[in-house]
Amino acid sequence: IIVSVDTPDNSSRLLRRAMSSGDAVRLYDVVFVLGPPGSGKGTQCARIQENLGFVHLSAGDLLRAERQRAGSEFGELIETHIKNGSIVPVEITCKLLENAMIASGTAAKGFLIDGFPRNQNNLDGWVREMGAKTKVHFVLYLSAELEICVDRCLNRGQGRTDDNVESIQKRITTYNNQTFPIIQHYEQLGLVREIKCGTKTPDQVYAEVAQVFGNAGL
Ligand SMILES: Nc1ncnc2c1ncn2[C@@H]1O[C@H](COP(=O)(O)OP(=O)(O)OP(=O)(O)O)[C@@H](O)[C@H]1O
Ligand SMILES: Nc1ccn([C@@H]2O[C@H](COP(=O)(O)O)[C@@H](O)[C@H]2O)c(=O)n1
Ligand SMILES: [Mg+2]
């Protein structure tokens, strides 16, 4: 088994994992971060990255960057999906995630994958392409009342083309119909760690987030 490593620390960690995993080498530790639009996923991921050594990869941010990339053949398709709050085909999103993971090297403790898997197509594509290369430790589910989420998106002030009433309504419909069932799927596997965020400050939410990671030994 060949394990690619770039630091002494990681080399022992990855080799330990390779030796203990039996048949497959699991190179990437992953935590998925899900929740309604505006629940605070990006806000909390930034803190986890800063404090706990995980690399934050937002599927939405990667898609927005690909949309802006000169010469991208997917720019128009991505923008149409973003405005409609619909989900980009997994072949595109999964490749962007994998490229970003590879580009991060092995210095990361693991990856926080924010806003993914968002529907059954995302989940199936991830299992197909990344299932054997990753260990999903748990799904951090940041829940919040939808009215609060709408207000947060409308007041975010980042100039997103989908932070308007019409797009937000569509994003919430997609969340209810397509993403929530994925959370329920992971719930059945005992992998969901829910934090109710609606009325808590970012500091209060982060205190609970840190506890969840601590309990998982991460
Ligand atoms: N606990 C909180 N209390 C009040 N405001 C918050 C809280 N957490 C985040 N916010 C604010 O709400 C807005 C949305 O937060 P953030 O971008 O982290 O959400 P998100 O879940 O990543 O949203 P999206 O799914 O649309 O990307 C931001 O303006 C952020 O500063
Ligand atoms: N797995 C994903 C994630 C996101 N999208 C699209 O991007 C939009 C914005 O996502 P945020 O997480 O930044 O809110 C989202 O509404 C989708 O259109 C996607 O297709 N697949
Ligand atoms: Mg976000």
TrEMBL record:
PROSITE patterns per the UniProt record, alphabetical: ADENYLATE_KINASE
Cofactor note: Binds 1 Mg(2+) ion per monomer.
Gene3D superfamilies, per database record: P-loop containing nucleotide triphosphate hydrolases (3.40.50.300)
Essential cofactor(s): Mg(2+)
Any Pfam family the entry gives: ADK
GO biological processes: 'de novo' pyrimidine nucleobase biosynthetic process; UDP biosynthetic process
Chain segments carrying region NMPbind: 58-88
Enzyme Commission no: 2.7.4.14
Localization per Swiss-Prot or TrEMBL: Cytoplasm; Nucleus
Listed GO CC annotations: cytoplasm; nucleus
Known catalytic reactions: CMP + ATP = CDP + ADP; UMP + ATP = UDP + ADP; dCMP + ATP = dCDP + ADP
Broad enzyme group: transferase
Entry keyword annotation includes Cytoplasm: yes
Binding site for a ribonucleoside 5'-phosphate: R64, S86, I87, V88, G115, F116, P117, R118, R160, R171
Keywords, comma-separated and alphabetical: ATP-binding, Cytoplasm, Kinase, Nucleotide-binding, Nucleus, Pyrimidine biosynthesis, Signal, Transferase
Family, similarity comment: Belongs to the adenylate kinase family. UMP-CMP kinase subfamily.
Known role: Catalyzes the phosphorylation of pyrimidine nucleoside monophosphates at the expense of ATP. Plays an important role in de novo pyrimidine nucleotide biosynthesis. Has preference for UMP and CMP as phosphate acceptors.
HAMAP family, alphabetized: Adenylate_kinase_Adk, Adenylate_kinase_UMP_CMP_kin
Free-text note on domains in this protein's UniProt record: Consists of three domains, a large central CORE domain and two small peripheral domains, NMPbind and LID, which undergo movements during catalysis. The LID domain closes over the site of phosphoryl transfer upon ATP binding. Assembling and dissambling the active center during each catalytic cycle provides an effective means to prevent ATP hydrolysis.
Protein name: UMP-CMP kinase
Organism: Panagrellus redivivus (Microworm)
